[in-house]
């Protein structure tokens, strides 16, 4: 009893620290391990923007956690009921306290946020959960159990292969082995784990897999989030201008127009050439525009030097796979597929680091 409660207390204590750790590591990486730059980013970067980027980048992880631990917990409860102790096992405790609507919400969220190539795995996990739950709640209804644990997975597999068949063959021909496996294996595997496994191996197998998921998933989440942009990319056209101290109006002069002796002012220096500063826009203060350029150097551009600026779109990643299912690329999510496409426009030359009109 004390073991499970102690583990839950530690989990609830450390869980809020994980997003904070990810945010700090992302800022540390963005600053190229320079403490002064990192402190500047912490001062100006919006916490709401950081949390929004974190949520959008890692929203897919919630269905992974709920469904993976749900399958393992229900498999343990069905295979070794004498070892299913919610007071001593954190896996058993989470399974016993997770309501059905949370699992349904996780399936719906996964259907929207997972890439197409992972949807067969989502179907497999959902059917496993349904079959294990039905066997546990209705052991005295063999017809119902047979329909859910055998007929439904077979029908789902036939339907999946009828839709995914051409994509699987295309992936095989293009030697995209990972894509072919993700599309072909899960529909057939739906009939493998719809019932109990030998009780002597169930506790070690389920707890071992749960520990593996709990160890690997944070590493994957961190690797994904460290590639997410946190600041908008902007191209700023900078035209250096003379300051008031070096302008002729501010310099004392003699009758012939030469600078007065002892004034400490000589001929004004030649103005620098115009340029385009391309980088992450940190903030715009009353006096300057703060930009983190491509060389990870913080530049304070006086606002009087800013001729124009434009917001540059984020660089889209090059697709790894050319396989699609009825026109739906396997690397796109359902949300990407349903949302309207942004109209293609000619890129602004300033986003390429060139001045307007330059060749």
Question: What is the element layout, followed by pairings?
Answer:
Blueprint: H1 2-14, H2 17-30, H3 35-44, H4 47-58, H5 61-79, H6 90-97, H7 100-113, H8 119-137, H9 142-173, H10 177-189, H11 202-225, E1 233-238, E2 275-284, E3 288-293, E4 298-302, E5 306-311, E6 324-325, E7 328-329, H12 334-338
Antiparallel strand pairs: 1-2, 1-5, 2-3, 3-4, 6-7
Helix pairs in contact: 5-6, 5-7, 5-8, 5-11, 8-9, 8-10, 9-10
Name the structural class. alpha+beta
Biggest sheet architecture = 5 strands, antiparallel
Sequence of strands across the biggest β-sheet? 4-3-2-1-5
Cα separation of the termini: 73 Å
Average of pLDDT: 83
Please compute the radius of gyration using only Cα atoms.
30 Å
Which features characterize this protein?
12 helices; 7 strands; 51% helix; elongated; two-stranded antiparallel sheet; 359 residues; alpha+beta
């Amino acid at each position: 009893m004390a073991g499970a409660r102690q583990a839950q207390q530690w989990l609830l204590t450390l869980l809020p620290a994980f997003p904070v750790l990810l945010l700090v590591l992302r800022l540390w990486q963005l600053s190229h391990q320079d403490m002064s730059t990192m402190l500047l980013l912490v001062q100006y970067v919006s916490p709401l923007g950081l949390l929004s980027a974190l949520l959008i980048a890692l929203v897919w992880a919630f269905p992974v956690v709920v469904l993976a631990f749900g399958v393992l917990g229900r498999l343990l409860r069905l295979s070794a009921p004498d070892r299913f102790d919610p007071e001593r096992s954190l896996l058993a405790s989470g399974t016993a306290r997770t309501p059905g609507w949370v699992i349904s919400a996780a399936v719906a969220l996964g259907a929207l946020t997972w890439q197409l190539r992972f949807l067969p795995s989502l179907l497999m996990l959902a059917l496993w959960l349904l079959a294990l739950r039905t066997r546990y709640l209705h052991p005295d209804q063999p017809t119902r159990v047979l329909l859910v644990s055998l007929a439904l997975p077979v029908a789902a597999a036939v339907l999946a292969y009828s839709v995914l068949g051409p994509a699987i063959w295309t992936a095989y021909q293009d030697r995209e082995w990972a894509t072919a496996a993700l599309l072909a294996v899960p529909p057939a595997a739906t009939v493998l784990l719809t019932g109990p496994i030998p009780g002597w191996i169930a506790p070690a197998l389920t707890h071992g897999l749960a520990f593996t998921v709990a160890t690997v998933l944070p590493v994957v989440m961190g690797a994904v989030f460290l590639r997410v942009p946190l600041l908008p990319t902007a191209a700023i056209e900078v035209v250096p201008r003379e300051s008031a101290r070096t302008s002729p109006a501010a310099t004392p002069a003699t009758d012939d127009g030469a600078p007065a002796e002892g004034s400490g002012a000589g001929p004004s220096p030649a103005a620098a050439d115009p340029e385009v500063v391309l980088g992450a826009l940190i903030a715009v203060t009353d006096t300057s525009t703060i930009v983190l350029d491509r060389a990870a150097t913080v530049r304070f551009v006086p606002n009087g030097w800013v001729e124009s600026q434009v917001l540059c779109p984020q660089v889209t990643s090059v697709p790894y796979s050319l396989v699609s299912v009825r026109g739906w690329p396997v690397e796109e999510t359902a949300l990407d597929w349903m949302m309207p496409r942004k109209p293609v426009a000619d890129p602004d030359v300033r986003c390429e680091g060139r001045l307007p009109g330059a060749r």
